[in-house]
Each structure stands twice: as C-alpha cells, then as structure tokens.
Amino acid sequence: MGWRKRLWAWLCWLPLVGCAANEFPEPIPAGAERFAGYAVGYLTPATLERDGVERSYWVYLPAGYDASQPLPLVVNLHAYNAAGPKQEQISRMRPLADVHGFILVYPEARGEPAAWDFTPGLAAN
C-alpha cells in the first residue's frame, strides 16, 4: 500500500477513534434559543463550560439564518499554534456557509502553544 493510501486510511480512521474514546455527553436541546445572541453574518466569540473547564470558540451564522429551520453544523479545527479567527481566514468557509446554509464553529485548542490532543486521559485538552 502506497503512502497516500495509508495516509487516507489513517485520516478516515482517526475521527472514529476519537468518537469511540469517550462517553456521549448529555444531549443539547434543539431549538432557536441555542444560537440566540449570535450575530448573523459575523464571526462571534463565545465560551462554554464543561466539567469546570471553560472552552472558547467562534460561531458563524450564515446570511439568511432562520432560527426556526435546522441547519448542518461544520466544526473547523485550526492548525498547531493557531486560533479560530486565523483558521477562518485560511479556510475561507464563510462564503460557502452563506451559499449552502450551514453553521460554522471554530473551537480554540487549549495550551501553549495551542494544539489539539486526541488522546483520552491527558490533561492538555
């Protein structure tokens, strides 16, 4: 198997490992109140707290967002030692979200330098 096929196999397998590693959290209630307060058409900073840990993220609601209609959610992870707004500039997904009607979320990794840690049980993320 060539290195490209191995790379694709690895990239397809990796998200499944992350999903299977932890128990599912309690479901988040659906509805318009979930995105109340976020500006439509703008990248908006936000935070949430889970198990006593505060996490930062950025939300983009597409132009024409209608809170009464469900939309797909795309989570866009930044690179090592980067941040959500920089990832938004690099990926340029906002026009796609406007055209195709999906919500964008850019979470911020914790740590210095900021990096994603997909191994369960370690304190970094």
Q: Please mark out the parts with pLDDT under 50 across 5 or more consecutive residues, or reply none.
A: none
Helix proportion range: 25-40%
Rounded to an integer, what's the Rg over CA atoms?
Answer: 16 Å
Which band does the percent of strand residues land in?
15-25%
Structure explained in plain terms:
The protein is α+β, with helices and mostly antiparallel strands and 125 residues long. It has a domain at 29-107: Rossmann fold (3-Layer(aba) Sandwich). 26% of the residues lie in helices and 19% in strands. The protein has helices at residues 3-20, 84-91, 94-100, and strands at residues 43-50, 53-60, 73-75, 103-107. A 4-stranded mixed sheet has the order 1-2-4-3, with helices on one face. Strand 1 (43-50) and strand 2 (53-60) form a beta hairpin. The longest helix has 18 residues, at 3-20. It is globular. The mean pLDDT is 73.
